Amino acid sequence: MKPVFVLNGPNLNLLGLREPAIYGAATLKDVETRCRDHASSLGLSVDFRQSNIEGELVSWIHEARDKASGIAINAGAYTHTSVALHDALKAADLPCVELHLSNVYKREAFRHTSLIAPAVNGVICGFGTESYVLALTALHSIIIANKKG
Ligand code: CA2
Fold first, then answer.
1. Residue 2: predicted pLDDT
2. pTM of the prediction?
3. Does the annotation count 23 as an active-site position?
């Protein structure tokens, strides 16, 4: 099976290095390891990437159309601003799950709006690193259901 793309947006390279009270102590490398372990327990593989550049994330979503079986995306702050990511996810025509480490609804009002949520199957937020694990489980369920249907 093609890998699941796990895409991470701006500033997530700083995970574990700053603001542990909000985002926890795990580094992005720790998150990647957790994703790889969980994916392999589900029989999936992951292609794990991070970029601070909106256009690079758009290009990776385009790449996923041919090379991935689904997308789990923490688009970081672009979640709240990016029509380009919305359009790319819609065009990807793949199972997609949006995820966030923090509960964005307990935070500033500008984080309460997601421009990408209408372009994905579902949204997971507020569970720290576990949000990635839950997103992979959800993607796996959608992929299996699509195969049966
Ligand atoms: O909770 C999440 O996962 C977010 O996607 C994280 C974004 C934020 O803009 C979203 O509203 C919610 C920010 C990622 C920045 O991560 C940092 C990690 C450590 C230090 C500074 C930033």
1. 97
2. 0.98
3. yes
